[in-house]
Design goal:
Keywords: ATP-binding, Cell membrane, Disulfide bond, Glycoprotein, Kinase, Lectin, Membrane, Nucleotide-binding, Receptor, Serine/threonine-protein kinase, Signal, Transferase, Transmembrane, Transmembrane helix. The chain has six domains: 139 residues, Orthogonal Prism (Agglutinin, subunit A), CATH 2.90.10.10; 129 residues, Orthogonal Prism (Agglutinin, subunit A); 97 residues, no CATH class; 30 residues; 121 residues, Phosphorylase Kinase, domain 1 (2-Layer Sandwich); 237 residues, Transferase(Phosphotransferase) domain 1 (Transferase(Phosphotransferase), domain 1), CATH 1.10.510.10. The chain is of the alpha+beta class. A hairpin with a 6-residue loop joins strand 29 and strand 30. The longest helix has 29 residues. The strands form 13 sheets. The protein has a seven-stranded mixed beta sheet with strand order 35-36-40-41-39-38-37, with helices on both faces. A six-stranded antiparallel beta sheet has the order 28-30-29-32-27-31, covered by helices on one side.
């Protein structure tokens, strides 16, 4: 069996074991429904009496546990203070005494008379969790949050007579082997603290092991080291949505990745995007997650699957994120690996084998020692324990009978011995044949293309012909007959040369880079006439091709409205394809709305102007443009703001064109962003102008509240911002939705209430009940219009939405200039 298959078997074998491992602790916590989430001075959490702290919503449990599945007597009685998910089969997310186990059942967690959080036990000096740095002790408490963070806080009296809690210590500052949502990997420059993960030593020994994972802010990548040597990297973080070599974009994944860099700290973190799952079995993924770095170098998140497999890195291969390091001369042919096999070596004498009893050796250490020993042909580690058995210069006899023979890690190569007979691997030969055929075919294609290009006259390249055809089509369909390049004087779309765009963007320098979207990178530029532009450069790895590029250009060329982003022209040269837009100095709405340091600039007057402008832009798309257009990805990051904070809808990569007499269209290719999709579109692929109205309603709630629609991560309660607004409406407390940054002036309350009311009408479950954008604008600006009572919206309590054929959009912290793009389909 291949090493990769073995590793996957180990992963999914141990998940149910972890479930059994925690069953007693979890059941005890669940049974103790009266368990508190706060430890006060004088109170205790006891190992002997099985007492626990349980977070407010019973998501996490803190208490003592043992890892006694496969351990020898030396380790079987060790107990540890840990935090774990209360009712889910995850290993502990945090351990307070991983390198100082308690050797009996005497552990007691308490806050002592000096304000220290300690573990008392019968085996020696108390284990200090928090050392106490305050003169007062009576107001200190320790609380377990639903995030899994364990806080030590102090109640502080303010001058005005009020009190607040000051955080003295938190477990998130001391990660073990698991990264929970909201935890940080990186460095705090102010305190000098590094946040990193360290694996267990073995399957059942939580002591710090061989592997560590940290965040490199300079290269924007995660790095896994083994004993200080870099074994694997994730590749760079791509647009805060994915890594090159880390499998976070699995169908089962719902991650929102974040990279933060300030003068005080640089770190990576992630949160969970709430997705309406179809099956109850996986609904827990909306609030249950933990990236685990295990003792073998595997990285996974529960039942979501394997994310990285560092155990496949040998120092000579660079696939899937593996790094290179110096190799022993005997391993120089780069074809050897270790494989777990059942059988025996033909000589088990002391001369042929030896046992290293070093208690600091884990499984990966055994492999490394054998790899560096040119005579070593195999090794064995011991489940749940430490130490290694090695074999030298011996032939291995594999047992294929299925009997209970012992298992060993055996060094194998492309030619290997199985049962004493030489077995030749045909994989390299099979792979080489199609590669050779592809090379020959590629050479023929190149020669043919080169011949065609040589036939094109001087100054009339294939790229220019394509561009002229494209621009002629675009201008003709917008009612103009003039084709313009940089020297023309018309105001139609322009053809920009590659040289002029390269000069405008300083050769596409990093200093000019604004960000990166699905289309590719976006750059700021300045033309020779001083005009500032935004350049969307199609990435060579983008899913967009020439046809999609043409479709998007033609579509945007048709649109002329003050609340839609303006396209200036394009550039095509060889593989280079670029769209040139007017530059928006204030970038996108989300960079103000969701940034605490910027949102105060959005007064209610400005927010209402933005709401009305977006509505006017949508009305134009739905009713007054020459073609009926459904945007399909309306959200805050796709709303640009000019220097006067006027909104402009951007990013028409997912838009669909309707004929005027078509009311709705059904598609099997669902694209867009979860949380903004109308229910009929998300579940059945049906979209219409009413789908756009639904997205507008969600966006209006975000503008009123200053919160993201997917900012609700609790196990119970509203699924999203829409559900929260509906709950408040039914409690006659709708104004509690309003952003606290806004003035509480009574003069704007009526307008705020009207926006919330109209927003609820826009997000009603049935499309037929939603107003048109024309009705929406009338209801927003005319106070004399009586509004109907809203009905229950969609997606307020976990209504199931099918995942199949859907394309999850993972949101970064903010968009830059809002110029991301993806394929645009035209409905026929």
């Amino acid at each position: 069996m291949a090493g990769k298959e073995i590793s996957l078997m180990i992963l999914f074998f141990f998940l149910p074991i972890f479930s059994c491992f925690f069953s007693s602790a979890s059941l005890a916590a669940a049974a103790s429904s009266s368990s508190s989430h706060t430890l006060n001075p004088g109170e205790t959490i006891n190992s002997s009496s099985s007492t626990f702290l349980v977070s407010a919503n019973k998501l996490f449990t803190l208490g003592f546990f043992k890892t006694n599945l496969f351990l020898s007597e030396e380790y079987s009685n060790n107990s540890y203070l840990g935090i774990w998910y209360s009712n889910y089969s995850y290993p502990p997310a945090w351990i307070g005494n991983r390198d100082k186990p308690i050797t009996d059942n005497s552990g007691v967690l308490t806050i002592d008379s000096t304000g220290k959080l300690i573990i008392r036990h019968n085996s020696g000096v108390p284990i200090e969790i928090y050392g106490g740095q305050t003169s007062t002790t009576t107001n200190i408490t320790a609380t377990l949050l639903d995030s899994g963070n364990f806080l030590v806080t102090e109640e502080v009296n303010n001058n005005n007579g009020s009190t607040n809690q000051r955080v003295l210590w938190e477990s998130f500052d001391y990660p073990t082997d698991t990264l929970l949502p909201g935890m940080k990997l990186g460095v705090n420059h102010r305190t000098g603290r590094n946040w990193s993960l360290t694996s267990w030593l073995s399957q059942d020994i939580p002591s710090p092991g061989a592997f560590t994972m940290d965040w490199d802010p300079n290269t924007r990548r995660l790095t896994i080291r083994r004993r200080g040597m870099i074994y694997w990297t994730s590749g760079a973080l791509l647009d805060n949505t994915d890594f090159e070599f880390l499998k976070t974009n699995l169908v089962q994944g719902n991650y929102n990745l974040t990279n933060v860099t300030t003068k005080d700290e640089e770190y990576f973190s992630y949160s969970l995007i709430k997705v309406p799952y179809l099956f109850d079995l996986i609904k827990s993924r909306n609030f249950i997650s933990g990236w685990l770095l295990d003792y073998q170098g595997l990285m996974y998140d529960g039942d979501r699957g394997l994310m990285a497999q560092v155990s496949l890195c040998y120092g000579y291969n660079t696939d899937n994120g593996c790094e290179l390091w110096k190799q022993p001369q005997c391993r120089g042919h780069h074809s050897q690996t270790f494989d777990l096999r059942t059988g025996y070596f033909n000589d088990s004498s002391d001369k042929a084998s030896f046992y290293d009893k070093n208690t600091s050796l884990g499984s990966s250490d055994c492999r490394e020692i054998c790899w560096d020993d040119c005579d070593c042909v195999g090794y064995k580690d011991y489940i749940g324990e430490t130490g290694c058995m090695f074999w030298r210069n011996q032939e291995f006899h594999q047992d294929l009978s299925g009997s209970a023979s012992p298992k060993h890690y055996v060094l194998i190569s492309n030619t290997e011995y199985v049962g004493g007979k030489k077995k030749i691997k045909w994989i390299p030969i099979v792979v080489a044949i199609p590669i050779f055929v592809m090379l020959v075919f590629g050479l023929l294609c190149y020669l043919k293309r080169r011949t065609i290009r040589l036939q094109v006259g001087r100054g009339e390249t294939t790229e220019m012909n394509d561009l002229i055809e494209l621009m002629t089509l675009a201008n003709a369909q917008t009612g103009t007959n003039k084709l313009e390049n940089e020297t023309n004087k018309s105001n139609d779309l322009k053809i920009f040369s590659f040289g002029s765009i390269s000069a405008a963007t300083n050769s596409f320098s990093l200093e000019n880079k604004l960000g990166e979207g699905g289309f590719g990178p976006v750059y700021k530029g300045r033309l020779t006439n001083g005009r500032e532009i935004a350049v969307k450069r199609l990435s060579r790895t983008s899913g967009q091709g020439v046809v999609e590029f043409k479709n998007e250009l033609i579509l945007i060329a048709k649109l002329q409205h003050v609340n839609l982003v303006r396209l200036l022209g394009c550039c095509i040269q060889g593989d280079e394809k670029m769209l040139i837009y007017e530059y928006m100095v204030n970038k996108s709405l989300d960079s103000f709305l969701f940034d605490p340091s910027q949102k105060e600039k959005l007064t209610w007057e400005k927010r209402f102007i933005i709401i009305e402008g977006i509505a006017q832009g949508l009305l134009y798309l739905h009713q007054y443009s020459r073609l009926k257009i459904i945007h399909r990805d309306l959200k805050a990051s796709n709303i640009l703001l000019d220097n006067n904070m006027n909104p402009k809808i951007s990013d028409f990569g997912m838009a669909r064109i309707f004929k005027q007499n078509v009311l709705e269209v059904t598609t099997a290719r669902i694209v867009g962003t979860y949380g903004y999709m109308a229910p009929e579109y998300a579940m059945e692929g049906i979209f219409s102008v009413k789908s756009g109205v639904f997205s507008f309603g969600v966006l209006m709630f975000e503008i009123v509240s200053g919160r993201k629609n997917n900012s609700f991560y609790h196990a119970d309660g509203p699924l999203n911002l829409v559900g929260y607004a509906w709950d408040l409406w039914n409690k006659n407390a709708a104004l509690e939705l309003v952003d606290p940054m806004l003035s509480s002036d009574s003069s704007i309350r009526q307008q705020l209430m009207r926006c919330i009311h109209v927003g609820l009408l826009c997000v009603e479950d049935r499309a037929v009940n939603r107003p048109t954008m024309s009705d929406v604008i009338s209801m927003l600006i005319d106070d004399n219009i009586t509004l109907p009572m809203p009905k229950k919206p969609a997606f307020v309590s976990g209504i199931s939405v099918g995942e199949e054929n859907s394309n999850k959009s993972k949101l970064g912290k903010y968009s830059v200039n809002g110029l991301s793009s993806s394929t645009m389909d035209a409905a026929r």
